[in-house]
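User: Here's a chain of 267 residues. Predict its fold as tokens.
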Amino acid sequence: MILFPDVNPVAFHIGSLAVYWYGLMYLAGFLAGWFVLNWRLRHSSFWNFTTEQLGDILFFAALGVIIGGRLGYILFYDWHNFIADPMRLFQIRQGGMSFHGGLLGVLLALWICARRMKKPLGDVLDFLVPAVPLGLALGRIGNFINGELWGRVSDVPWAMVFPKAGDMPRHPSQLYEFFLEGICLFIVLWIFSMRPKPRLAVSGLFLIGYGIARFSVEFFREPDVQIGYVALGWMTKGQLLSLPMIIAGIMMMVWAYCRGKKTCNNI
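Assistant: Prediction complete.
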């Protein structure tokens, strides 16, 4: 058993304003995305984007993550409390961001961005998604520092006692997600996208990879207390939402490779 590290969720103060590690992780995620994608623009010849367009893509993606993530949490995980108190929508400091909501928000935001740039949405998505796992990894570190989204009770040697979760040792499921959704998925997508691929193949692989990683980690993560299990007596809401991602990703990759040999640099 390992004691949870005593890390203050507040990184520092600017006057009376508290700056949280969780927010800094979001910022670091977007900066990491800009760095690696800018590097790829300078070292790859087949991504037809400018650095200015990269900035626009990340700006729209950030809006989609924040707005979609919050609305998705309210819709998927906290609807009953929202109906009782609609102001919960703005109580972000109490927690509540949904990856699946953020994904839908990013899709809508990038659709608008692609239309403004007169680029196919598939090209924008395929260009962006290899960097997304870096943001996911840093976000999970933020969850870990906050001591939230802990795992199920366990007796594995690396189980931790989370202060907000009682006295029982639990899986550090945030770190599992950091490794699978973040590091492993980044490596797979980065290598896969180093050469031109059919449009939407990279995005499809992202959906498959994230969906499988999230579905797997949910077996070790404590279900949301206000929801519990939602299907078959063992399936969590995260698993239920991840299944359509896996199916959609498989369909996208099949469609991408069956439609022809066109790639993002010659369409």
